[in-house]
Amino acid sequence: MARIALAFVALLGLLAPLPAQDDLRDRITRRDGREITGRVVEPFATGELTIVQGGKRVRIARADVAQMDLVGDRIKAFCERRVRQQDSPKAQAFLRDQAIAQSLPGLARLQALWQVLQDDSNEAAHTFLGHQKGAKGWLWEHDGKRYAKEQLELVLAKQPMTLVGERFQLRCAADLKTNVAALLDLEQLGVAWFDLFGKDLGLREVLKPIAVVAWKNGDDFPKWGFRPVPYFVPAPHGDEVRTFYFGPNPTRPERWFFVATQGLLYHTLIGEVNRQNDRDRVCPWLEIGLGMWMEHAMQGPAGFAAPGPQRAQDVQALQASGRGYRLTHLLHLPMYGSFYLTDDTATAINWSAALMFVSWLLQADNLPKTREPFLQFVRAALRDRKGDSSSAFDQLLGRRIEEMDEPWRQWLAKTAGY
Predict the structure, then answer these.
(1) Which of 43, 198, 215, 300: CA 20 to 30 A from 191?
(2) Model confidence at 15, in pLDDT bands (50, 70, 90)?
(3) Model's pTM, two decimal places?
(4) Which own/partner pairs from 367-370 qualify as long-range (CB within 8 Å, at least 24 positions apart)?
(5) What's the number of CA atoms in the CB half-sphere (13 Å) around residue 200?
(6) Helix (H, G, I), strand (E, B), or coil: what is residue 308?
(7) What is the C-alpha R_g of the chain?
(8) Burial of 151 per CB tally in 10 Å (0-12, 13-18, 19+)
(9) Residues 184-225: tens digit of each pLDDT
(10) How far is it, in rounded angstroms, from Cα 214 to Cα 264?
(11) Residue pair 174/153 in contact by the 8 Å Cβ criterion
(12) Nearest to residue 27, comparing CAs of 84, 141, 103?
């Protein structure tokens, strides 16, 4: 207990987002015994690792590394245990202590919030969060004032609170319980994203939490086209995930995992876009398809999301095969005009076709093989900025896209059940 108390004191200064110069939580042990601390920019790099120490960059050959203790690995262990033991209050309490001991301040605070929102009598979690016990219950601090929880929920509508995790942060303007669960789900999404694609795509780590805003409803949401549909604004135009809640008792914001994956794509693979055009995207069909693939993979109760088999593939396959859709039509569609501008059948088919083409390409049992060549194309298109180049696609997949049309359509028919 003494060790946990000391760790708690050390963590108090870390509850806000860590300035880059102060984040030294990754530990790399060299073969000669020396230790380097900082943040590893590309944890899957094979030749050389770059470690950021504030404004300083240290490089070390991968061959000289004996051991690595990375924040990303600690997040993974936390999230997987959280899902695995979601029905155990004792395990959930221990997870807060685990996050403290492993210097994961965002997850420590989120877990404590989760605990008090489930059980207001949890004194240890309230104390950790800095709440004070008053005559009528616990008082929460926000913007220099203290409120009872019921008062705080009303105040948030005008003075939103920023909930900070490790890879994401969320502006909370209402319903703390739902928003805390939603942000925990995004931390689970980050783990799944790196697990599924980190090595194959050579993903960069998220060193600063991705900003997410979920509006209370679609009426207030700054829509991008004819109707409100979640979207990501890349840097340098905003660097922000935007979505909204829908309905009287929503579990999660709309297309929650889709739009957060857009943020992950730009932070871990793509980077910034054209400074002159806030509608510019590198490869629209690919970005939509990958995001929707993650949307359909993530499932489970609020706060405990985990990847599983693709959902509703039959419905999506049926829609994607509409109107004799051809892959050559999909490849060069613009993001705004073809996926957001209008609310019609053609737009809906574009969304489904992007998802189902990515789904088919990721199938491990396709003959000829498509998964590995496709992931090579993803790296070339997004990281190397080849974009929607047909020649790059044909070259890396080993055949022209026109040759894929018929086997893809046969798979769609089988998946749709007709």
Answers:
(1) 215
(2) very low
(3) 0.94
(4) 368/398, 368/399, 370/397
(5) 14
(6) coil
(7) 23
(8) middle
(9) 999 999 999 999 999 999 999 999 999 999 999 999 999 998
(10) 16
(11) yes
(12) 103
